[in-house]
Specification:
Elements: H1 6-18, E1 23-28, H2 46-63, E2 67-72, H3 92-95, E3 103-107, H4 118-124, E4 129-135, H5 137-151, E5 154-163, E6 167-169, E7 172-174, H6 176-188, E8 193-195, H7 197-206, H8 215-228
Parallel strand pairs: 1-2, 1-4, 2-3, 4-5, 5-8
Antiparallel strand pairs: 6-7
Helix pairs in contact: 2-7, 5-6
Length: 229
């Protein structure tokens, strides 16, 4: 630091602070509902993504960062996500790792922040960076990452610890792989740093931020990619 002007010292200190994320791991809807039936996660296969979610939970426990487990509720008696049903429960691989220190959240909207106290809990723990894992990429992961921008949280999404389903409606059809990979590219262009679980665990241990793209760079790279096809 010797020889730097005072302003340079301030800048360096600020950069060091910003390069050390204060993280929390958010498990979104890792519920039995997503392992069978019409909402069964298709890509990546749920047996693969679940293993990566467990890997993230174990890494969070080792690092001592806060964990929140979110469950979606469609209300009593609903055909899906009905409290009290087996499908509402967290997957056993997650439930057996749960501790009293975890934050429990029940939501009724796509975003984990909408009409819940999660944002307040994160601020109480001085969290500035949230890591999202769970289901689905095409619904709650997307909605949560977008709302986090307004709330002021930096978002990370783990590509192999999330998953999507096949979609078809009057607007068209997209298989689960296309849905998942397209939305991850979209998120990484603006709303989130997208990473594998292993890369995130390394960054967590090193107390470093994940790198992400931006809309301008993604647009330029997309245009260049198209000209090479």
């Amino acid at each position: 630091m010797e020889g730097l002007p005072f302003g340079g010292q301030q800048t360096t200190i600020r950069e060091n602070i910003m390069s050390t994320p204060r993280r929390a791991l958010i498990l979104i809807d890792v519920q039995q509902q997503y392992f069978t039936g019409p909402l069964e996660i298709q890509y990546p296969p749920h047996q693969d993504s679940l293993a990566m979610i467990v890997r993230a939970v174990d890494a969070a426990a080792a690092a001592g960062i806060p964990v929140a487990a979110v469950q979606h509720s469609a209300g009593e008696g609903a055909p899906v996500f009905a409290p009290g049903t087996p499908e509402f429960a967290l997957h056993p691989d997650i439930e057996r790792r749960r501790t009293d220190a975890w934050k429990g959240v029940v939501k009724q909207y796509g975003s984990v922040y909408a009409d819940t106290d999660l944002a307040g809990w994160l601020r109480q723990h001085d969290i500035d960076t949230v890591t999202l894992v769970g289901y689905m990429t095409n619904n709650c992961i997307l909605a949560s990452a977008v709302e986090a921008e307004f709330l002021g949280f930096t978002t990370e999404v783990l590509s192999d610890a999330t998953g999507a389903i096949n979609l078809a409606n009057d607007a068209g059809f997209a298989d689960a792989k296309t849905v998942h990979t397209t939305l991850l590219a979209l998120l990484n262009s603006n709303w989130a740093a997208v990473s594998t679980t292993d890369a995130w665990a390394d960054a967590l241990e090193a107390q470093e931020a994940l790198k992400k793209s931006d809309l301008g760079s993604s647009a330029i790279a997309g245009a260049a990619r198209l000209t090479r096809v």
